[in-house]
Amino acid sequence: MRLTTRPRSVARMRAHASSVGTAPQRTAPARARRPHRAARRAVRLLGNLVLVLVVTLFAGLAVGPHVFGYRTMTMLTGSMAPGINPGDVTVAVPEPISQLAVGQVITYQIPVDDHRDVSHRVVAVKRQANGTVQIQTKGDHNTGVDPWTAVITDRQVWRVVAVVPHLGAAIQALRGTGLRTVFLYVGPAALAVFLLAGIWRRGGTGDERSGEAPVEQPTPGTLDEEALASLTEEVDDPVCVRDFLTRWNDLLQARLDRVELALDKGQFSAARECALSLQVTSAMIGLTDFADAAAALEAALLEEDGVSASAAFTALRRLAPTASRSLQDHLAHQPN
Predict the structure, then answer these.
(1) What mean pLDDT, rounded, does the chain reach?
(2) In this predicted model, what pLDDT tens digit does every residue of 63-122 receive, in sequence order?
(3) Where is this region: Disordered (predicted)?
(4) CA 57 to chain centre
């Protein structure tokens, strides 16, 4: 807030200066306030950068796979060195089995021992008449082909498209029960605080500033434009935000169907993961009512209360059309 001195106060200050025969001098503490203000700004900027990093890491590891459909895996051995080293994280996307080819690096379950996931390069592909595909793989650093033949019965495989060096240690730590819980619940809370702080810094709502009567409340399930504007400002990439909104809207129905299927099968854990993803991402883009409904569903699933979960899902499903239309209206008014 800018402080201004009234003319009457200035006159009093001048009169006081004349009575003592000297002009008021700027004191050392006043001069010292400038570097203090600069230090506070630097600390605030550093805090914002750290928070953005945490939120980005949360989005990439906990939300991204549910929204964009990719998988991450930490490389534990040096079998694919030097391209993929121990501690690196691979990012894999679905690849139609018809496009599987020699030379691709894929992530799949080995057909022996503990059936763990490995990321190795395909060296042989043999397609069977019944539609299955037999493959042989090899680690780039290994001297020989893997001592097994894997049979792919799914319609897709996971092809490695990117490698993030040295991120594996963080993911391994987050897989611990305590840290994983903190990450899943503190991450969204930190994001919410981050967005709200941005709104508060701009001085609150227009009604508070002008003293006008409160405006009519929005229809439940509609988009909170202020929250979305804050997200766009913090990300500083309108194209990225628009693409995220489009992708979220395109996948909304399929994600709701996934929750419903898991509920029908009594798979509370799978349904809760989907509900948590919907909660975090909808809060991130300003669908506050939808996020609250998803949170209620996630809480019911955590208690494995089937009746409450079904009621909460019905409420969530009821808000989906309004949420989708709000996103479509918003995107229609955005520049391409």
Answers:
(1) 75
(2) 667 667 788 888 888 999 999 998 888 999 999 999 999 999 999 999 987 788 899 999
(3) 1-36
(4) 7
Burial (CB < 10 A; 0-12, 13-18, 19+), residue 153, is exposed
User: Is the pLDDT score of 208 beyond 50?
Assistant: no
* 82 preceded by a cis bond (ω within 30 of 0): yes
Tokens of 312: 């909460």
d(CA 248, CA 278): 9
Nearest to 95 by CA among 107, 79, 111: 107
Helix axes 238-264, 306-332, angle to 10 degrees: 150
Q: Would you call 121 helix, strand, or coil by DSSP?
A: strand
Which is it for strands 150-152 and 133-138: parallel, antiparallel or unpaired? antiparallel
The two three-digit tokens of residue 121, written as one number: 């390069």
How is residue 13 written in tokens? 């200050």
In order of start, what are the domains of the chain with their CATH numbers? 73-170 (2.10.109.10), 176-205+220-332 (1.20.120)
